[in-house]
Amino acid sequence: MTTHLVIPDSHAKPGVSNDRFTLAGKFAAVMQPDVIIQLGDWFDMPSLCSYDRGTKGFEGRRYKKDIAAGIEAIDNFTTQIARKSGYKPRLIALGGNHDEGRISKVVSTQAEYEGLLSPDDMKWNDFGWTYVPYKTSIKINGVNYCHALPSGVMGRPIAGANPASTIIREHHKSSTVGHLHLFDYAERTSVDGEKVQALVAGCFFTHNESYAGPHVNKMWWRGLILKHFNSDGTYDMDRWSMTRLKREFG
After folding, report:
1. Which helix H or strand E contains 102, and what residues bound it?
2. How far is CA 163 from the centre of its chain?
3. Are 56 and 113 in contact (CB under 8 A)?
4. What is the domain range of residue 99?
5. What is the CATH number of the domain that holds 54?
6. What is the pLDDT of residues 48-68, one digit of tens each?
7. Sheet hosting strand 175-177, strand order edge to edge
8. Ramachandran sector of residue 219 (left: φ over 0; alpha: ψ -120 to 50; beta: rest)
9. Which of 13, 79, 100, 204 has the maximum number of C-beta atoms within 10 A of its C-beta?
């Protein structure tokens, strides 16, 4: 049976502990999924945020610190896997709007940064991960993985009250995305019996984000998802909340 470990948006950044990545690595070393997919926004990149630039809260942010925090998180995770003798999963890292998206925006709008900032700074390949650029999908065992999928002619990320159902309606294929920090799942069966599964996978951090406000932060689902694939190409899900992870692997 093929298994996938899905790590949703993690938002590693300075001032926030990276212990959760060690925890996730321990979990992976025990469960030994065949494929591990992180869905993008592993790096938060607050120094490149354009929304609160110029405010008091922006003071002291540095790109090098953002990169260092994300790389430490990768190291914490992959070190735990490396300690498991004989275990070598396929590692897939997706670009997100916070990491590659913010880097690309700065380089495209401020030419003086060309050659100084790059997605390569995240060092995914150095740690053995295959990097999939932002806004690009990768299909693994019949499931389309992407940080976010577009909606309509403007190409904005699918959102709304029922994003998983919208993904099925607009893209007609089994897909798993991050970006929204919510958990949502939908499944449909075509007239010929083919099942289409859409998953919005939540997030993987415990801190609250000030831009979202207290009510939105409470709406987010936080944890990891382990998929168990069946012979017909569908998968069953095992959801591991942060509370459950800490209790059993902390």
Report:
1. helix 100-109
2. 16
3. no
4. 3-249
5. 3.60.21.10
6. 987 666 565 566 789 999 999
7. 138-140, 143-146, 175-177, 195-201, 183-189
8. alpha
9. 204
